[in-house]
Design brief:
By secondary structure, the chain is of the alpha+beta class. It has helices at about 80-85, 85-95, 100-130, 170-180, 195-200, and strands at about 15-20, 25-30, 35-40, 45, 55-65, 70-75.
């Protein structure tokens, strides 16, 4: 039930907020031209931010719940609508953004950067493993050095020059020297320790 109208566009009554509990989100408006106070709730304000303030002028409709109780609906800020430009309202809304929201945005950015860093590091590790050639654990081959030949006396006229057989010897003395000082000789066929028996005649 609407009590009266002053024929203003979208506004039935005007008044001033005289009581307001921001925590609970409700208060009371004193209607202009009298001492009557009417209940109001934050859900009926347009816009809801910035929040209502005491002594702020508002326009509203008075509605009954059918049980003799009245409340203000479609509440508008009169001074804000008349004096504040749309540009100022937009800036004002930005200035009143909750610090909690800003912290949440910063945390979200940090988490995003951390995730990107972790993914990048994992990709780098994977690429490194693929590009680095695998080293097989092959046993190291030991190089076997040839047997060192017995030292040849500098005073000897003979040298180990690869001759192995008695037919290549010029004397018994030479054959004996080769057997003593050179490896792989084949001058003692019967293994009795006497080389080139045809030359040395039984040593």
């Amino acid at each position: 039930m609407i009590l009266k109208s002053n024929n203003k566009k979208g506004v039935v009554d005007e008044g001033v907020i005289v009581k307001w509990d921001d925590e609970k989100g409700y208060g009371f408006i004193r209607i202009d031209g009298g001492n009557k106070e009417i209940f109001c709730h934050i859900s009926d304000f347009s816009p809801r931010n910035p929040r209502p303030e005491i002594n702020e002028a508002v326009g509203f409709e008075v509605v009954s719940d059918g049980k003799g109780r009245f409340s203000a609906k479609q509440i508008r800020y009169l001074n804000r609508e008349r004096a504040v430009s749309p540009v100022y309202r937009k800036k004002h809304r930005k200035d009143e953004e909750s610090p909690t929201s800003i912290v949440q945005v910063v945390l979200s950015l940090l988490v995003g950067l951390l995730l990107v860093s972790v993914i990048g590091y994992k990709a780098y590790q994977y690429a490194s493993e693929k590009l680095t050639p695998k080293q097989e654990n092959t046993p190291v081959k030991t190089r076997v050095l040839p047997e060192i030949k017995r030292q040849q006396p500098d005073s000897s006229p003979y040298r180990c020059d690869g001759r192995q057989y008695c037919s290549q010897m010029t004397s018994c003395e030479e054959a004996k020297w080769f057997v003593r000082n050179c490896s792989d000789t084949k001058m003692d066929g019967d293994g009795d320790g006497i080389p080139c028996e045809d030359k040395c005649g039984g040593w």
